[in-house]
Structure formats: structure tokens, C-alpha cells
């Protein structure tokens, strides 16, 4: 993650606008929403992306947003499971973190 918020947002927007595939664009949109404090909407974008194609990046975004929005045991277990799903997917090189 970039320490400069303006540079990070500019990079995310450029990547989103350059995305060829809808599932990639949705992941970038999710990170933009997440970084602007819209965690529920970011989670929704991750789910939309996963409905199109399972990818490391979409599972990671979903786990990150879910982990940041809730601290209960059930959510923690869901985050671990999502990360396990992420590790089983090939990456399409959109990794943000």
C-alpha cells in the first residue's frame, strides 16, 4: 500500500480505467471505495467480482474489508476462510497490499 493517499487513489483510478475485464475493474473500484471509507460497498464490489471470476485479488479485498468492519469470532473465521480461498486461486497480478 502506498503511503501517499493521493498517489494511491490516482494509481487505482488509472488501473480501473485501464482494466479490460469487468472482474478486474470491480476489484479496483472496491479498493477505491475501501480507501474512501465505504467498506460495505467495497465488500459488495468484491462479491460482484467473485460472481464473475474467482481471483486472489477479489477474495483478498473481501477478506480485508470484512476483517476491518467486524471483530467478532465468526467474522474472524470467515476472514481466514476467505484468505484460504484466495491462496487457492491464481493471481491475476492486481495485488494491492
UniProtKB/TrEMBL annotation:
- Mention one GO biological process in which this protein takes part, according to its record: negative regulation of ethylene-activated signaling pathway
InterPro entries given in the database record: ETO1-like (IPR044631)
What is this protein's name? Uncharacterized protein
Amino acid at each position: 500500500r502506498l503511503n501517499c493517499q493521493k498517489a494511491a487513489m490516482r494509481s487505482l483510478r488509472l488501473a480501473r480505467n485501464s482494466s479490460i475485464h469487468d472482474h478486474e475493474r470491480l476489484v479496483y473500484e472496491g479498493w477505491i471505495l475501501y480507501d474512501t471509507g465505504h467498506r460495505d460497498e467495497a465488500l459488495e464490489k468484491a462479491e460482484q467480482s467473485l460472481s464473475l471470476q474467482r481471483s486472489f485479488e477479489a477474495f483478498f479485498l473481501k477478506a480485508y474489508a470484512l476483517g476491518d468492519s467486524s471483530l467478532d469470532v465468526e467474522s474472524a473465521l470467515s476472514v481466514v476462510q476467505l484468505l484460504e480461498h484466495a491462496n487457492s486461486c491464481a493471481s491475476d497480478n492486481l495485488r494491492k497490499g
